[in-house]
Amino acid sequence: MGKIKKKFSEGGSRTYTTRNRALRKLQVSLADFRRLCILKGVYPVEPRSQKKANRGSSKPTTFYYAKDIQLLLSEPLIAKFREHKIFLRKLQRALGKDDLTRAKGLESRRPEYTLDHLVIERYPTFVDALRDLDDALCMVFLFATMPAVNQVNNEVVDDCKRLSTEFMHYVIHSHSLRKVFLSIKGIYYQAEIQGQSITWIVPYQFSQNVPLDVDFKVMSTFLHFYRTLLGFANYRLFTMANLSYPPKVDQLMDDSAAGLGSLKIEAKRMEDLIKSAQPASGDDNSAARAPAAAMTKQMKQRLDTLGSKIKKIVAADASHINADQAPAYESVGESAADGDMDDEARQSGGLLFAKQVFFLSREVPRYSLEFVIRACGGRLGWDQTSGGGSPYAENDRAVTVQVSDRPVQGHQFLDRKYVQPQWVYDSINAHRLLDVDDYLIGQPLPPHLSPFVEYAEGDYVPEAATKMAAAAGFEGEVTNLKPEDRDKSEDSEEDGDDAADIDGASADEEEADSDAEEDEDEDDTAEKQRQKQLLAEQAGVPFSEYQQRQAQGKPKPKPKAANKKRSKAEVEEEERQKIAISMLSKKKRKVVNRTQDEATKKAKDINTLKARKSLAASKPVAKTSKSKRN
Amino acid sequence: MAIHSKGKKRGTASREAAAAAAQEEKAAAAFPKSKGIDVPSDPEHSSDDDEDVEEGDFEEMLKKMADDQGIDSEDAEDYLAGDSLDEEEGDEEDESDIHSSDIEGASSEDGDDGSGSESDNESGDESEADDSILERITSRSSDGQHTAVDSQDEEASEEELGEVSMDKLTIRDFGRDIQGWKEYRKTLPQIDAGYASDSSTEEPENTIGSVPIEWYEDYPHIGYDIDGKRIMKPATADELDKFLANMDDPDVFRTARDEVNQQDVKLSEEEIDIIRRIQGGSIPDADYNQYEDTVEWFTSQTMQVPLSGAPLAKRGFIPSKWEHKRVMKIVRAIRQGRITRPSAASSNAKPRFYDVWEKAEQDDDSTQQKRLARRARMPAPRMALPSHDESYHPPVEYLPTDAERQSWLDEEPDYRKKNYLPQDFGSLRSVPGYERFVHERFQRCLDLYLAPRMLKRTTQLNAEELMPKLPDPRDLRPFPSAQALVYLGHTGRVRSISVDPTGLWLLSGSDDGTVRLWEIVTGRCARIWDLKETVHMVAWCPNPDVCVFAAAAGSRTVIVIPAELCDEQKRLLSEELVRAGFNSSAQNEEEEDDDSLPVSWDMPTSTEQASGIHISVTMHKTVKSVMWHRRGDYLATLTAEEGGSSVLIHQMSKHKSQRPFRKLKGAVQCIMFHPTKPWFLVATQRYVRIYNLMQQALIKTLQPGVKWISSIDVHPQGDNVIVGSYDKKLSWFDLDLSVKPYRSIRYHQQAIRQVQYSRKFPLFATASDDGSIQVYHGMVYQDLNQNPLIVPLKILRGHEIRSSLGVLDCLFHPIQPWLLSSGADGTIRLWT
Prior knowledge:
- The complex is a heterodimer of chains A (630) and B (832).
- Chain A has five domains: 63 residues, no CATH class; 149 residues, no CATH class; 103 residues, BRCT domain (Rossmann fold, 3-Layer(aba) Sandwich), CATH 3.40.50.10190; 87 residues, no CATH class; 49 residues.
- In chain A, 58% of the residues lie in helices and 7% in strands.
- In chain A, a hairpin with a 2-residue loop joins strand 4 and strand 5.
- In chain B, the strands form nine sheets. A five-stranded antiparallel beta sheet of chain B has the order 10-11-12-14-13. Chain B has a four-stranded antiparallel beta sheet with strand order 5-33-32-31, with no helix packed on it. A four-stranded antiparallel beta sheet of chain B has the order 6-7-8-9, with no helix packed on it.
- Chain B folds into two domains: 279 residues, no CATH class; 357 residues, 7 Propeller (Methylamine Dehydrogenase, Chain H).
- At the A-B interface, helix 3, helix 8, helix 9, helix 10 and helix 12 of A face helix 18, helix 19, helix 21 and strand 30 of B.
- Chain A: GO terms for molecular function: ribonucleoprotein complex binding; RNA binding.
- Chain A: Component of the NOP7 complex, which is required for maturation of the 25S and 5.8S ribosomal RNAs and formation of the 60S ribosome.
């Protein structure tokens, strides 16, 4: 007979451990354990069998992976926490005895810990870090607007302000902003950095009320890690964009509430580059030498192209009368830095607001609009009351668009357009400059839709979205394309087929358009078809396939009289389905039932939406009065 | 004498006197010592300004001063009348003598250095001055003379000298030579009691005691002296004179009246100065320096010669062990870097951020791999992205109605589907801050570190993909799909139906006690047999050569030949079959007795015979089921009783019954002959047992896994069995495969009452209490490797549900793809 196995020596009880067991093993307090878990990213898990994991007990408990706890055991932070505990004890004692000199000395030697090693441990590659940047950004942007009260340290708030501004500068510099959404909670931004979509929300610029029922200890622990993470991410992003980090603070601008302008974004200086290359070349390590060689090569290239660049700049200056008025950040931060791509893109009109100069009236949220407009290549000025450092005055002739949010605009310059702020955001989401007529001052605005909603087949598509898509169709193929697609078609000639397809589609659309004009009865159907086409295009269906589908679909159309009959057939079909479900195994039947439930729920939701819409349409008076009031 | 000494003891005396000395050269020249100066000078002053004081302020002030500091002896002197005045003069002389003699003595005894040192100390330290006096006194006392007291005055004065001078003075012994002492006394120096000496023992000059002055206001005297004599008030001028005197006197402002001594006091310049200073709130003494230089208590100069000659203690030159320990502690701390200079610490600091990932990329593969492996196995789900209704200005259809808004508000916050209420603000300027922002962030934090995570693998399953790939029912025609006929007539539940082998006639047995014969195609009721009892079962004999059916009514089973349906030959054959047994049964009567079966084969009554009933088999219990063997000779019955005798097999040709099972476990639900083999199926509540009747052995026990079997049927080919159950399940068994069901199908909402195969088509049907009949395609292939194909085809609805009973029996037509069904509503329906 073999050796009798001990109970709970393997299986679920070894894989998982309960929180109390973990505490006993780590010999830390619960508060320290929580802090550790937050910082190390250790989370509780739901075991497959609670009873097995908890040694036969089915009491509700929190479980952790035993390996995770094992990992925590070797964490240097535990020692740091102990040091801190001892420090606090000493300080308490010194203060209790009124020994202020000793307390002061202790305070000056307060043990501190950094979380650098955790960043690399939790995110071994930079892409991992980018993937998990959402929460970090949300938190940092929130605390940047927090009042410095008891729970929130003043230094922390300042640090958050700085980190968030740095990140925004990177987004501006790399023009990576993709989507913006004005929600009732705050403003959502989505940027695409190194192929990762990063979404974060920023509260509206009001003083945050600090609630009492929120544990700021937990929040600040998270924030500590997030600040570290964002700092390192910023460093990496800036370095990769060839910008020097940390950017210098322009105290004068900072004092005049210049916001984004308070940081001076500068290209990495030559000396820095050389300095960073030097130690690598000094080493015998050949692997380390390779990047250095690449660096020198890069420098040479840059030197070679310097002459042409200077010429270009000079030419631009000559052509532009307002060259001296142009904001400093443009000339220094972007064109001088690795911004050759950006400049070209801007010149060719690739960026959305490349040719626009905005002026922001004092009632619009400058902090958001400045970021958004600059990220899309626009230039802007603002009212003196909303902060210093504005490169354009209100009466500047270069201004093309004035963003204003008041019921009536008094004096209007004739050579510029006056729009409400939503125009800027909607244009960014639509990837094209929208018609300003819908956004004129004092007019009720078209609804602001979330750019994050993706329509699957059978989903409810609001009218505004279909209108927008249709309008995009009229504009032509370029505006309709996503920027990535455009890049692709420009970059590679192999994608010619796709491009041809798209061209064909648009040509077809135009034909359809002309047809529709001829016959008003068919107008609706043509429009629907176009929408279908657009949807198909968005879904990435090649046009040929789409056409085939259409061809298959076309002979089917039935007169309206057949509607009832078909419904009967449908009933039969439904019955057959029901019978077929009885043939399924229990497991599959559950799945099928669930999907059916979902479908019915979806249909119900759509019906409520439609009902609401028809209700609203039946009371247009109330609606207009409401909009007037606003 | 006493007065003078007292004057020297005045509190502020020494420094005031020094100031006065500077003014009066004469006194200064006469007395090198400062202490003595004021005594002769003051009386001179006072004698000059012997006037009354008019100003009340000054008087009061003076009184105060007198109280505080004691009354100036020299001023008091002036008030004494008569003899005391003379004495004063004498004293003055004495005093001058004393002073001169003092100088002489000093010069004679101390030699040349005496006067020099004293003049140096003129404005010097009080203590030094005292020392010098003491020196002189001691030098004189070395003569060996002793002091003695000769008069009270002198004694008092001696007492008043204070303790310090008393001891010194009693050194010289004069014995009884009072005169000598008196002489000597004149040579003694003036004694200064010192600044700090106590003046509380001083008495006023007139010795009236501490009697309030106002008691003597109306008397000419102001008190009594020690001898009881009156001390008279001095003569005073009348008011007019006083007034005139005041008018003339320029010093009237500085004159105050001393009531005790009955005299006017003229204040000196210094006193006025003091008063002014007090009034001004500054220190009264003009010479007092608040900010004097510090005088070192220990000198900073190192003394070359040790004070003590004692040898140094060992600990004096051995370094302290404890000090060493303390120092080493610090040294160690510095070495270990626990103590650093603050400047060094700050300069050492790295830049806060650097490229961590670059460093990681340089690490070797194994570390990086380890890190990658340690990455969060379950990354936290991302936050949900906002939908249209979160917009500050959403489309109208996303705004909730008032009712929805109210229901949202009424709902418990934790149970709300969305944590916000869609709102339309119209324009961006009217959007307020979101109150719950911090809360939502906090909630997210909590979710990240507190919420247990679990990987849920959800494959995006399409419901259509999951659906079995079944052939289209339209391709599987023919099958009954619609109701064609309803056979009306029965007044009770129709429990059983049966179709004759030719497919023309239908029999039905009902709770109303009748058996009816129907023409299938027309629905005409051809004949009715009233059996008086509930007919549980009717069954046609499957032998196509005869025309016989059996009906189970109550505990009786009757065999009937419906004569009008069959031709002559068939009728003869049938009758032969039925009657043959009567002969044989008579022969074997004895054997039957042995068996003692509870069965009796009887000839029916003549009326019954006329209606075509030829045999009546009576059993003890109600007959639930009658089943023919396929040849038509054997008949199995099932009665409602426990045990082996519930199942009986009767042989028609011999009128013989036998009990195949001595014992049977459980209550038998239904029985059946196998269509091809000599097998017999018995379904108990949970199992179906298959017996071989020839070998008398159990072949198989099927386990459908249901709670209560209701019905069974065997496929015409004999290899498949379907079992229906009251728990809504249908199980298909492949006898070659397993004793467990090949497939279980559950579709009915209520109990299944009957399951039936079609004898000709690959169809089967189930009838249920939910009033529906489900028709399936059940194809059994000849190829043993191919599993039977089961396709649901059609649900037939039409029967009404009466007292929760629906369809009770169903049956396929033997030739056509038709289905007949009977229900609790008393109808029989034909489905084509």
